[in-house]
Automatic annotation (TrEMBL):
<feature type="compositionally biased region" description="Basic and acidic residues">
    <location>
        <begin position="154"/>
        <end position="164"/>
    </location>
</feature>
<protein>
    <recommendedName>
        <fullName>Lipoprotein</fullName>
    </recommendedName>
</protein>
<feature type="compositionally biased region" description="Pro residues">
    <location>
        <begin position="190"/>
        <end position="208"/>
    </location>
</feature>
<feature type="signal peptide">
    <location>
        <begin position="1"/>
        <end position="20"/>
    </location>
</feature>
<feature type="region of interest" description="Disordered">
    <location>
        <begin position="152"/>
        <end position="208"/>
    </location>
</feature>
<keyword id="KW-0732">Signal</keyword>
Length: 208
């Protein structure tokens, strides 16, 4: 049953991708053909569970992409990561950060094949802006390939942050009603590793 549900999900997403991209002038041969899923196709939610981990959700601060650390039950479940980003985008306060991701009327559908992550948005969601597309792309890219955080290495290992994660998608394709957008993870910023705090020097011993 799980296999049939996964096949149905992927078939629907790839068919939508073909229609949307054809409308945009991209040949259907550049996307996955509708029908039976190709070998190796899988739904991100079908990966075995792993330990809780810290990921970065990307929002905007002063118009710049900025990672915000969040704990998740399973960083390998990219479907859950995508949904979490949209959920937090709908509730994040302007004093903390802003977002260009839209409020959704329903949960997005997610599938991955051949290194491309497909995200189908519900209803008549408007085409994403470039910054919104980067928010989504960078969140998924670094969920699969974790970036440095302020969490000490020993603590991260103890909490499972170094658990094996799936290879980062080479690109992300967002599909809406009559439109599609594609973005490579190469455009994502690389956050600087946290600076180590210098040790406090010991006070001098009093002279005899």
């Amino acid at each position: 049953m799980r296999g049939s549900r996964t096949a149905a999900l992927l078939s629907g997403l790839t068919a939508a991708a073909a229609v949307a991209l054809t409308a945009c002038g991209v040949p259907p041969s550049d996307v996955i053909e509708a029908g039976a899923p190709a070998s190796g196709m899988f739904s991100p939610s079908a990966t075995p569970p792993s330990a809780p981990a810290t990921i970065s959700l990307f929002f905007l601060r002063d118009g710049e992409l900025t990672p915000f650390p969040r704990r998740v039950d399973d960083a390998r479940n990219l479907k859950a990561v995508v949904r979490l980003l949209f959920e937090e985008s709908a509730t994040i306060g302007a004093a903390t950060a802003t977002t260009e991701l839209p409020r959704l009327t329903d949960a997005p559908r997610v599938a991955i094949e051949g290194g491309v992550l497909f995200v189908e948005l519900p209803g008549e969601t408007a085409p994403l802006s470039r910054r919104a597309l980067l928010q989504l792309t960078c969140t998924v890219t670094y969920a699969a390939s974790p970036i440095p955080t302020a969490v000490p290495r020993a603590d991260a290992e103890a909490r499972g942050d170094t658990a094996r994660r799936p290879a980062a998608p080479s690109s992300l394709q967002v599909i809406g009603d009559g439109w599609a957008r594609t973005q490579s993870g190469d455009a994502c910023p690389v956050p600087a590793p946290p600076q180590e705090q210098p040790e406090t020097p010991a006070p001098p011993e009093p002279s005899g």
